[in-house]
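Data deposition worksheet. Section B asks for the primary sequence of the deposited chain exactly as it was used as input, without tags or linkers unless they were present during the calculation. Section C holds the resulting structure in token form. Section D is free text for depositor observations; keep each observation to a single sentence. Incomplete worksheets are returned to the depositor.
Section A, Depositor: J.P.
Section B:
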Amino acid sequence: MANKNEVATQDTFSGSLTIALNEQKEALPADFNIPRFVQNSIALLNGNDTLADFAKQYGTAQIKNGLIRGAFLGLDALNQEMYLVPYKNVLNFMPSYKGMVKLAQKYSTRPIKSIYAKVVRQGDEFSEEIINGEPTINYKAQPFNNNDIIGVFAVCQYEDGGIVYEVMSKADVEQCRKSSKAKNSPAWEKFFSEMAKKTVLRRLCKSITLDMDAKLAEAIDAGLEIETDVREIAKQEIEENANTEPFVIDTEAEVVSDLM
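Section C:
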């Protein structure tokens, strides 16, 4: 049972989050339910030890700001559609794999029937084919297969029957991880398969035209930029091309999301 101080803290956070969301109501999705979002946020804080530690270390204001960034996109932390990742004393909002699927389905200009990503493990059957001029993936997972991951793929099937997909080897995923500011984060360390699926899904989203206003696109970029650090990419290119062409790092370069 919560003590009086805990209840007071919850009430203060709930009230503050509600006020902030109402002040920016016009920026929220038309179908956004503020009371439910606030209720879910409180439930998440009560049941998540990591967030409780974040609150002590970073303060509830940063947690609130991260949740609001998710709210702009209609993503709910309790539904595991977003999460917060610490980087340089700041809690950064990120859409999860589940959140990325939701965004693609909601904002695609071409109606999507289904979109998903799968990991391929040793022992699974996987192949790519061209049938009647159309690219096709054949995939059959072995039941309860816990062997090492060797690759990952994402597929988007449109309601009109069209299909686009993206394939990455584990080495490709690891290369993307190396360019991440949060390459050693608990998400990569403990949930590699989910992060791999999210990585290939983000690459697939380059092939999907999304219809959203500038503010929503900016919110996605702000949430994903931590995962694509252009300075780290430049550093890798220097190391891989040492003693060849000179390469200059633009230290003022802006981080650009590879979602769009």
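Section D:
Strands lie at 82-87, 90-95, 112-121, 125-131, 134-140, 149-158, 163-169.
The chain has two domains: 4-95, 99-207.
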